[in-house]
From TrEMBL:
Residues 225-385 form the DUF4143 domain. This is ATPase. Transmembrane segments: none annotated. It comes from Muricomes intestini. Residues 18-153 form the AAA domain. The lineage of its organism: Bacteria, Bacillati, Bacillota, Clostridia, Lachnospirales. SUPFAM superfamilies: P-loop containing nucleoside triphosphate hydrolases (SSF52540). It comes from the Bacteria. It holds the Pfam family AAA_14.
Amino acid sequence: MYRKIMGFLEVWKKNEHRKPLILQGARQVGKTYAVLEFGRNHYENVAYFNFETSPKLSETFEEDISPNYLIPILSHIAGQTIVREKTLIVFDEIQLCERALTSLKYFCEEAPDYHIIVAGSLLGVAVNRARFSFPVGKVDMKTLYPMDMEEFMLAMSEEALTEQIKECFRTDTPLPSALHNAAMQLYRQYLVVGGMPECVLQFAETRDYVLIRHTQDTILAGYLSDMSKYNNLNEIKKTRLVYDNITVQLSRKNTRFQYKLIKKGGRASEFENAIEWLTLSGIVSQVYKVEQIKKPLENYRDIDAFKIYVSDLGLLCAKKDLAANDVLYMVDEINDFKGGMAENYVNVQLSISGYKTYYWESPRGAEIDFIIQRKGELIPIEVKSADNTRAKSLKVYMDTYKPSYAIKLSAKNFGFENGKKIVPLYAAFCI
């Protein structure tokens, strides 16, 4: 299956100022597969080391972590010669070996001709909580997310439709209605399947939603296991409480995160470490409210007002135990959840595209789902789950801040009207 990360990795390989690369992301997003596939296609050989499946590997790094010492030993362990620029060295689950992470500093300084990519699922958590000597300034970093809507459509062999969607986005021209309907159906399938590569592959091969739900439940169980394994003892229960509560918060009209919904009398001081753990692990993301629409937006965020979205739509549906058909046909029984689910979907697509997202509220309660900086401009984005696109809040925002244009995501076809770029939900990846 095609992954956009391959383009980034090719640029990294050719860069004269390349440093060891840390590829981070939540479990099961396809880090190991992407790195090994890249290595097979672009190097003479790949020397792969996994600190989880080979616990004794860590002993190699206990005495000396200089490249001159490590390379002969690693060559012996791998059973192949590690050659400068021709071998890709891969350290997987590196969060389990602090000294291996520190060694990247010396590879950068003393042996930059060796090509190294390391992967880790809970690196953010490990580095934040442990006594890690992180190689600041000596590594390149990239986050891998689940597959986005475009990668999902390509996995479904919809190359031609994907290209047409991109063209319609560029020209604000409606897609022929039959294709628009087909793309909306693919969007609803994506909501159920999500972007975890294993689930997408199973769906491409079988179209079996029961099988996919079983896989999603297994991934969720793995996340719960990580919460116990890589967390402070007194934080485990709180972290699970927060994670379980996210779907409840997304079902409300105001999706701003409220501690009191986790438990009666809940406060920030009690749950902020749990939220930080979930964010650092890549399982969720926080979207903060901005108090002023000025650059840089980060300077004007309200640290006490935020929303939480999960990193994968399929896992969201599995966690909520939503039946596939209820989502595919958007039945009335899930009306309360449709808005939050569409918002979560858009946040995932924007994050994968590299945007830092925020939201905005007026003193009188008008709310814009997302504010992003696109091509140097601050752009408001309104999200509607259906084709009902009346948006009073967007009018309030546009009258107040007069952006060059706004984006409205809904079930409506492409178009441009009254300063608003109309974009169907399936085309969020184009932004």
